[in-house]
Amino acid sequence: MRNKKPSKDTDRRTFLKNIGMLSAAGFLGTGILNTACGTNTSGNTNNKVPGIALVGLGGYATGQLAPALQETKHCKLTGIVTVTPAKEKEWMKKYNIPRENVYNYDNFDSIADNKDIDIIYIVLPNSMHAEYSIRAAKAGKHVICEKPMTTTVEDAQAIIRACNENNVKLSVGYRLHFEPHHLRAMELGQTEEMGKVLNTDAAFSFVLNNKSWRLDKEMAGGGPLMDIGIYTIQGACYTKGQWPVEVEARYGEVTKPELFDSVEQSISFTLKFPDGTTSKHNTSYADNANYLKTTAENGWWELNPAYSYGHLRGKTSNGQMDLPNVNQQARQMDAFALSIIRDTPILATGDMGLRDMMIMEAIYQSADTGKPVPLHLNGLDIPQFRLHKEVNALI
Ligand code: NAD
Q: Which of the listed CATH numbers 3.30.470.10, 3.30.360.10, 3.40.47.40, 3.40.50.1000 matches domain 176-325+350-394?
């Protein structure tokens, strides 16, 4: 009798089981992490759920992170850092935060003495990430820094140094490393399930019509590339499991000069990988696009929309990806909390944030000079799919 072909449902169950998305799946990891790290939840000497303080209560902290912290299993919201009195009162009431856990930018450093706060999550405009991440590390707190990690390569290196010197953990807010469709794209690419990856085509754009810090180069470091194009760089790199050796870029036309007098309106670029294959990218603040498409030797896959907080959809040359949408931010913060509680590996490492800063700096250099720019991204601590699978199974 011929072997029965696994049904789509079996495929889905197997994949979800592998990345820990089925009820019992948290216990189905191969055990590599538990043995390697030699600890379990009881390894957390304080035996308490780590507390997180959010720094910067703007759109992302208010709309995504605080609500996600109501769903986390391994960490909780215990503090806030803000200079807006109205927000203090509202957040204290809504999230039951005591007055002594509310800080402003001036008394921020005294957070060192607060035992309720173990993790500081920096959700400020990009140019402020380095200062507050370094102050958090010096206060002896673990750090999650939003993307892009900083506005310069030197600042990203300074954050990593400060976290190392103060013996605290560091991660960048790359939520899609905990998202089933992206984990599947990583798996398809890195395990060469459909053969070698031949090329990736990625775009992330939206229309930005109002002046804000995002359009100020000093505050943002750059335009759509730094804000959303970074997701397409991430997507291409984790699909291949390689980092680019060369970039080539050009700026798009400026059709709204009244808005785009400081940062680019749009930019397109090509990344060249060590095996000679390429990925093509587009990102803009004057257009709408949201996809990650890959062609391999024996098939293709596509996520569209690819980078939203929910409602992601994926399909392959074999049919639809039947995968759940999850609370990406809750899983991301739980994974970081587990790295503190159980010493599990960090997936979105500081080195990954630094790599992306190096790539983006090279992209701007290429667009400015009109020439390809070589990249030498060796010796960075950037986990591959195998570790993603292990860690996601534990969340
Ligand atoms: P926002 O403008 O909505 O909020 C910024 C916050 O910073 C506000 O609370 C504001 O009061 C505070 N702030 C302090 N000093 C400021 C200054 N000089 N100018 C402006 N604001 C100042 O921004 P946001 O959308 O919440 O983004 C914050 C960070 O989070 C950015 O680094 C952004 O890239 C990142 N982000 C990440 C995601 C993600 O999916 N991972 C999504 C959105 C934003």
A: 3.30.360.10
Tell me what pLDDT residue 6 has.
44
**16-46 per-position pLDDT tens digit:** 777 766 543 332 233 333 322 223 333 344 5
Tell me, using a 6 A CB cutoff, whether residue 223 lines ligand 1.
no
Beta carbons within 8 Å of 191's beta carbon, 6+ residues apart: 385
Average pLDDT value over all residues in the chain: 92
Tokens 């790199």 belong to which residue?
237
Residue 120 Cα to ligand 1 midpoint, Å, equals 15
> CA triplet 188, 190, 195: central angle to 5 degrees?
65
| Beta carbon of 26 within 6 Å of any ligand 1 atom | no
**From the centroid of its chain, how far is CA 240?**
17
pLDDT digits (tens, 9 = 90+) for 132-148: 999 999 999 999 999 99
Q: Where are the domains of the chain?
A: 24-175, 176-325+350-394
Tokens 């390689």, located at residue: 242
